[in-house]
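Regression test case RT-17, inverse folding.

Input:
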């Protein structure tokens, strides 16, 4: 289908993008890689009156050492996240999961910021960022603010971003000594996750000293598996604890799987994630 008519401007830098957003008003949208927004526009599920293209802003594409964290520019494409050696060392679950998204075309055009801002509960990286307790950096005409991942995802396609907000950076804590795993259960290699599980664990004498676990496609947002984390903290082993992976979840039924099936698969893939995290 053909999208409805819209105005289009290329932003030269982040400040310019915010000015353009303010000039165009509340119905304008940012265009990054276009791999989520353009399909929605073609189906007329989204009909922005104007697009502000940030895809050519080099200042938004980087991976930097921020001391206790790695800073990733919102405009960094998955492929660059996946291949960044500093991220591979300091926060390997982020680099690894970027390589699990879609197919090569999606990974060369889609951006980490677009994935986060889009707020799709089936997306992979938001789950990992929630497990890591990452921080989103947001700019607007009022200045800069930071939002923890736990407060960022509000509902299906709904985030803490306002209409004239630009996500500029994602800060991920360095976790070089932690065990980690992202288990993506999907039917074909390029599919979204039917269920995904991110686990980041601190090891203590071969067992789990502390764990942060988050789930993909198990509700309206990426979800923390709090019951599993508590069970592990209480001394349960991965097999026992993962039986609680469906607690507090509300997955949809769709052609990829029923709600009941997803709940069972969440238990299976949580156990696998914990076992792999312990072995790394
Ligand atoms: C065939 C296919 C397969 C895919 N498979 C997967 C998959 O397996 N896993 C997965 O996680 N994703 C998958 N995706 C989605 C893909 O990851 C998208 O690239 C991503 O969700 C959006 O990134 P983008 O840069 O393309 O954003 P766009 O489509 O340009 O924008 C998406 C939304 O975010 C907003 N936005 C973008 N950047 C910013 C910013 N910096 N600040 C504020 N708002 C912003 C836009 O206004 C828009 O509302 C797939 C997509 C396709 C087409």
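Golden output:
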């Amino acid at each position: 289908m053909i999208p409805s008519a819209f105005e289009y401007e290329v932003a030269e830098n982040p400040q310019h993008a915010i000015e353009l957003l303010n000039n165009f008003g509340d119905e304008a949208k940012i265009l990054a890689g276009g791999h989520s927004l353009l399909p929605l526009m073609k189906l007329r599920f989204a009909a922005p009156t104007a697009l502000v293209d940030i895809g050519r802003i080099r200042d938004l594409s980087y991976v930097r050492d921020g001391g206790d964290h790695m800073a990733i520019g919102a405009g960094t494409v998955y492929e660059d996240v996946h291949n960044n050696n500093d991220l591979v060392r300091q926060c390997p679950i982020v680099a690894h999961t970027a390589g699990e998204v879609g197919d090569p075309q999606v990974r060369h055009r889609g951006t980490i910021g677009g994935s986060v801002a889009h707020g799709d509960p089936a997306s992979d990286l938001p789950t990992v960022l929630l497990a890591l307790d990452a921080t989103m950096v947001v700019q607007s005409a009022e200045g800069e603010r930071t939002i923890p991942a736990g407060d960022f995802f509000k509902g299906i396609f709904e985030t803490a971003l306002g209409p004239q907000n630009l996500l500029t950076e994602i800060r991920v804590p360095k976790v070089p000594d932690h065990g980690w795993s992202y288990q993506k259960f999907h039917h074909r290699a390029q599919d979204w996750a039917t269920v995904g599980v991110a686990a980041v664990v601190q090891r203590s004498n071969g067992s789990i000293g502390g764990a942060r676990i988050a789930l993909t496609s198990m509700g309206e947002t990426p979800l923390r598996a709090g019951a599993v984390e508590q069970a592990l903290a209480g001394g349960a082993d991965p097999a026992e604890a993962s039986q609680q992976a469906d607690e507090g979840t509300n997955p949809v039924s769709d052609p990829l799987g029923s709600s009941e099936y997803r709940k069972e698969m969440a238990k299976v893939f949580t156990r696998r994630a914990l076992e792999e995290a312990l072995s790394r």
